[in-house]
Amino acid sequence: MIVFDANVLVALVSPATPPDDRERLNGLIKKIGAQRSYVGVPAPAFAEFLVKSDAATAAILLTFERKAALRILPFDRKAAVQCALLDRAAHATGKKRGSAAQNAPWQKIKVDRQIVAIALANNAELIVAQDGDIPSIAADAGVPATTIESLELPEWAKQGKLDLSQSPY
Predict the structure, then answer these.
(1) What are the DSSP calls for 64-133, one per residue?
(2) 78 closest CA partner among 40, 108, 111, 119
(3) Residues in Cβ contact with 95 at an 8 Å cutoff, skipping those fewer than 6 apart
(4) Dihedral Cα 55, 59, 65, 66, nearest 10 deg
(5) Hey, what domains does the chain have and what are their CATH numbers?
(6) Given strand 2-4, what is the order of strands in its sheet?
(7) N or C: which end of the chain has fewer CB within 10 A?
(8) What does the pLDDT look like over 106-139, one tens digit per residue?
(9) What is the DSSP string of 13-28?
(10) pTM higher than 0.70, yes or no?
C-alpha cells in the first residue's frame, strides 16, 4: 500500500498540476493497480483535502466510495500507539518536534505525525507527500517517503513533445 497526503490528492484533481507531475502520479497509480495494491489516505489527510475541495466534495466522496483501490485509513488504536511511539522518540532526542521544521506550528506537526503513524500502523510501503515535514517525520520512523517530483516519470511520458504551433510555412 502507498499512502498519499492531502496535497498529493489535490495534485491529482487540480488543473494547475504540471503535466509531468500528473504523469508521475498516473504512472504510480497504474503500477499500484497492476500489483493489486491500493492507495491509502489517512483520515486526517482526507479531512484536509475535503476542506480544499469545495464544491467538488460530493463527487470526490462518491469516487472514493466506488474505487476499491482507494481506502480511507482511520486513526485507530494501532495508529494511536504508533503516534505515541513517534512522540516518545522525538522527546527522547530532546526536541519534541523531532526533525520536523522547528518553526512549524505544533498542531501541524501533531497531525503530520498522525499521518505517518497511520501509515506505519497499516504497513505502508511508501508515503507520497508534498508536505515537507511528513517526509522528515517518516524518515525518523523508518518509513520511505518521497515527493511527486521524485517519482519516476513513466516511459510513455518521456516521449518528447513537438511544438506544432509554429508552422514553418
Answers:
(1) HHH-TTEEEEP--HHHHHHHHHHHHHHHHTT-TTTTS-TTS-HHHHHHHHHHHHHHHHTT-SEEE-SSTH
(2) 119
(3) 102
(4) -160
(5) 2-150 (3.40.50.1010)
(6) 70-73, 39-42, 2-4, 126-128, 145-146
(7) C
(8) 898 899 999 999 999 999 999 999 987 899 899 9
(9) H-TTS-HHHHHHHHHH
(10) yes
C-alpha span between 137 and 85 (Å, rounded)? 12
Integer Rg of the chain from CA: 18
Q: DSSP label at 54? A: G
Which secondary-structure segment (H or E) carries 2?
strand 2-4
Secondary structure (3-state) at 147: coil
Spatial neighbors of 33 by CB under 8 A, at least 6 apart, are 69
Count the neighbouring beta carbons within 10 Å of the beta carbon of residue 121: 20
Cα separation, 157 vs 89, whole angstroms: 41
Instruction: Please tell me which residue, 60 or 31, carries the higher pLDDT value.
Output: 31
Q: What angle do CA 84, 87, 93 make, to 5 degrees?
A: 145
Distance CA 113, CA 51 (A): 19
